[in-house]
Amino acid sequence: MQKSMTTYSPWNRFFNRNRGILIGGLAVFVIVLFFYIWIPMETVAVLNATVRISTPLVLGALCGLMGERAAVINIGIEGQMLMSAFIAFLFNVWTGNLPLSILAGVLTGALLGLLLAFMAVTLKIDQIIGGTVINILAVGLTGYFYSTGLTAKGGLGPIIIPVLSDIPLIGPVLFKNPPITYAAIILVFVIHYVLFYTRWGLRTRAVGEHPRAADTVGINVYKMRYVNVILGGSLAGLAGAFLTLEAIGSFERLMTNGRGFIALACMIFGRWTPLGSWGAALFFALFTALATQISFMFGETVNIPHQVWGILPYLFTILVLAGVGKRVRSPAADGVPYTKE
Amino acid sequence: MDSNQKVPNQPKFLRSILDVLLNENLWRTILVQVMAVLLALLIGAIILLISGANPIEAYAALFRGAFGSPTAIGRTLEKATPLIFSGLAVAFAFKAGMFNIGAQGQLLFGAITAAFLGFALHGLPPFIHMPLALIGGALAGGAYAIIPGALKAYRGVHEVITTIMLNYIAINVTDYLANGPWKDTSPGNVVARTPVIDPAAAIGKLGPVPIGFIIAILAAFVVWWLLGKTTTGFEIRMVGLNPSAARYAGIKVARTLILTMVISGILAGLGGAVETLGVVGRYQPGFNVGLGFDGITVAMLGKTHPFGVIPAAILVGAMKAGSSEMQFASGVAKEITDVIQALILFFVAADVIMRSLLRMGKAGGEEVKLSTGWGKQ
After folding, report:
1. What Cα–Cα distance (Å) separates residue A200 from each residue in A66, A207, A208, A220?
2. Residue B149's closest chain A neighbor by CA?
3. CB atoms B173 and A311 under 8 Å
4. Across the interface, do A136 and B297 touch by the CB < 8 Å criterion?
5. Chain B interface test: which of A114, A311, A336 (most B C-beta within 10 Å)
6. What is the mean pLDDT of chain A?
């Protein structure tokens, strides 16, 4: 029959491959719709919070996966975020120029990416220790140079996209966001495209899976690793800028609060893919947002200590990782320094 | 193990000490570590200069505050004590190829459990009460470390992520306990903290030397013996060097990983317990912050050797003890010592730089790798 031929069409293949995701997505949509009809205000609030909470996580996860696709483990995302958040904040305090502040944050992240690449690729330091150096350095430097009483000159406000933002439910959640949130969503697709559909992406993955083979065919392993880790660092820098310029509006000591590590968990849960990491970040953020909303709604009637809500995101991350467990596979050369012969 | 190696008329103990002292590699390693510290201090001085402070004045005050008087030395040893424990905890896990960033969380549980046993029990004689509280804290730390150990062993979840998550959970749980069921209810208290421990549970001092410090030195000896002289220690090191070979040789890798993590947690828990019973006298949130993380620097600076950890902890402890004096005398913020610690960690890890500066060859000895991929063991 004519019908059976279409089994091989790309659309059919797409549906077959992603059946689980599509069914899951549909289920989520139905549940969200149900809640939207039942309690529209709260639903929009939770979804807004989800998008907001997921932004630094997805940026951090993208940072992590860019490094790891090129076989450099980056556990210094936390430190890169913290340092960038601080520098972006300082530029905002000094100049009040928001684009310049974002740029300063991004460059700070890139600079720390350079430091990590130098340690991991050139010096061949154990990458876990290299990342820890960045984390401790960021805590020390931000703590040393931060003085209370600095006030930021404004923050990034939402950009309302006309027409699209008038759609019920989707409009206020997706099209009334501040710029870095939009940037994070766009970057997910950009990096997905670059990683899987361009020569650069193919080379990056080759360097991460089998550097010796990549080297043999003339790919510069060191250069690929350096550039990927630096670009990844700039994404962590953007996440830091998000925290001080968009989300909170000022700087506090240790304000990243483990987000860099949760981002790593999102990356693993998302199996080192940009779309998967985004899904994981949204999932995690939804959980956090729900916890906050529930404690907000029922906090008066049910007396649950706030620490319980504080624990939930971390507990959830551990459970997710334990559940994913050995089914995930990291890039084959992950964490292994390469020595050219 | 070595029962067949009997050399008469020559005390084995003295001979092995002599062997160690005459080892050229040891002195080279020490030289590299000292250079790393000096370079870190130099860069720290540059940062101080940039921020408009006088580095010589600041470092002089730092030194005065750490070693300037018997009281200062006592304070340095007091600060070094929990760092020896957390350094040993990190170093011990490292031997099995694991990076226990969770020493912080295990330490918090050790601290609060010791505080609970300290204030809840009364009327026991000191020689029972104090060890009881100490052991309770140690076991609490060890029990908490089962989670990352088991997740690593059976589910292949990288311990760096789980232990960091568990740190945040530990902070929340201890906060809750100190602010809820175990809160100090004496009139006038408004902050979150437990009541003061019973005097019978307190760990005292011998002159300026805290007894906790002596316990820490003993712990270092036990760790050295466990790692170097027992079958368990051999298995742990083998798993760290090559898990596949260890499995092939019939070592139960999963069991060894969990055991390593538990012992590491016990050491961290002891650190928290000693800090509570010997210094703070109660559990108060925020008082033990960073002690576990400093353990990373201490372990690396001490080359993950149990005896290397002791001088490394004294050095970091000295920076902590002297930083208040430095802040007071020269107005330099305490956090500069964090920066110096990160730089020390960098230069110690990057011994390639140091060795090329000192014109030495590559480091010898066993090398353990931490950065295995996330999903693997």
Report:
1. 12, 11, 12, 11
2. A322
3. yes
4. yes
5. A311
6. 87
Among the partner residues A261, A315, A329, nearest to B161 by beta-carbon distance? A261
Tell me, which fold does domain B71-325 have in CATH? ABC transporter involved in vitamin B12 uptake, BtuC (1.10.3470)
Contacts A126 to B, Cβ<8 Å: 349, 369-371
DSSP string across B61-95: HHHHHHHSSHHHHHHHHHHHHHHHHHHHHHHHHHH
* Closest of B133, B82, B132 to residue B106, by C-alpha: B82
Please determine, for residue B4, whether its predicted confidence score (pLDDT) is greater than 80.
no
Q: Which of B163, B171, B304, B164 is nearest to B240 (CA)?
A: B304
Q: What is the pLDDT of residue B262?
A: 97
According to CATH, the topology of domain A26-147+155-327 is ABC transporter involved in vitamin B12 uptake, BtuC (1.10.3470)
Residue A329 has pLDDT above 80, yes or no: no
Please list every residue in chain A whose beta carbon sits closer than 8 Å to the beta carbon of residue B296: 132, 136
pTM of this structure: 0.85
- Taking only the tens place, the pLDDT of each residue in B188-229 is 888 888 999 998 888 988 888 899 999 999 999 999 999 989
Nearest-CA distance B163 → chain A (Å)? 9
**Domain boundaries defined on chain A:** 26-147+155-327
Contact, A82 vs A142, CB < 8 A?
A: yes
Dmax (CA) of chain A: 75
For chain B, domain boundaries:
24-53+332-364, 71-325
**Model confidence pLDDT, tens digit, residues B97-127:** 888 888 999 999 999 999 999 999 988 898 8
Higher pLDDT, A218 or A323: A218
